[in-house]
Write a structure and sequence with these properties.
Strand content of chain A: under 5%
Helix content of chain A: 55-70%
Number of strands of chain A: 0
CATH class of chain A: Mainly Alpha
Order of helices and strands of chain A: HHHHHHHHH
Radius of gyration of chain A: 16 Å
Oligomer: homodimer
Number of helices of chain A: 9
CATH architecture of chain A: Orthogonal Bundle
Chain lengths: 176, 176
């Protein structure tokens, strides 16, 4: 994906200059909560066996080392997303993250023994949980309802854009 | 996709029994606004040439007949989504809608002369626009902020679930 294509995707998601400013503000609010956000989402995943298995060993036993290894990358990903400095390196990394959810590269980074592919429908289907729970984190530092709403709209757009880039790894050549 | 798989996807998206009730309420609020919602989204698409082209003739000229033919189906889709009666027929239809965005079946229903495939990234990338604009429509009938928020959360989950089903048409066998 090129930066020109990214620009069109930003337009598609409705990401304006004002949204990018709101996203930076969201980053300030979320920065020190990012670890807690990741843990919250993983907590939701842990309650659903059909999702939890992709973070477990292939034999279905717990695998805390795997979660611990990826956690700081996930936290950093939140902060990088909110920083909004989406250059070619960031873009390439989103494509890499996509592949790391699929049989192309899952488990490779951490040499993990876990199911080798997360179905696309579970990646996309989980978006609402990430969208909606983030609003609570945005509201935790005393901002007005309107301020939270504006940061949350920017987050919704940015998050969807990033996960949309991930989906390239799942799509037939030329169809993405 | 089976109804059992749909149930797992509902769980993934966080769709609770209370959300399904809120979705019905959203349907009551949105019912007579569904046409206006479709027109709003199409208005946004019309301002972006990289999106607008998929609703135009292959030579790039306007194609109002094509938009007019699909509009009542789109309106009905909103109402069916909010009705929440997601049986096998509804499920199969979501898969059909997915194919109708791709080179497998785009243009077929209306025998249209239009580009034959909408890239997945534009389908997914447009989700935030549909999510966020719907909140305004939900707020138009005098409900409290909390009531609007609850209906909107349900809408966000249901919409993402339906579009997630569409993506099966874009995905390699076994990866979805």
């Amino acid at each position: 994906m090129t930066l020109e294509e990214l620009e069109l995707l930003k337009q598609t998601a409705g990401l304006t200059t004002e949204d990018m400013r709101q996203l930076l503000l969201a980053g300030e609010v979320l920065g020190d909560q990012a670890g807690e956000m990741v843990d919250t989402w993983r907590g939701v995943i842990a309650t659903q066996p059909h999702l939890a298995r992709y973070a477990m060993r292939t034999d279905g036993s717990p695998y805390p080392e795997y979660g611990a290894a990826s956690r700081p990358r996930f936290v950093q990903w939140i902060n990088d997303l909110c920083a909004g400095d989406w250059d070619q390196e960031w873009l390439d990394y989103q494509e890499t993250i996509g592949r790391r959810h699929t049989r192309a590269e899952k488990n490779k980074t951490d040499n993990a023994d876990s199911p080798d592919h997360i179905p696309l429908r579970y990646v996309l289907g989980f978006l609402p949980v990430v969208i909606l729970t983030t609003k609570d984190f945005l509201a935790k530092k005393g901002h007005s309802a309107d301020e939270v709403e504006a940061m949350h709209a920017a987050w919704t757009k940015a998050l969807t854009l990033a996960v949309t880039i991930w989906t390239a790894a799942y799509t037939r050549e030329g169809d993405w």
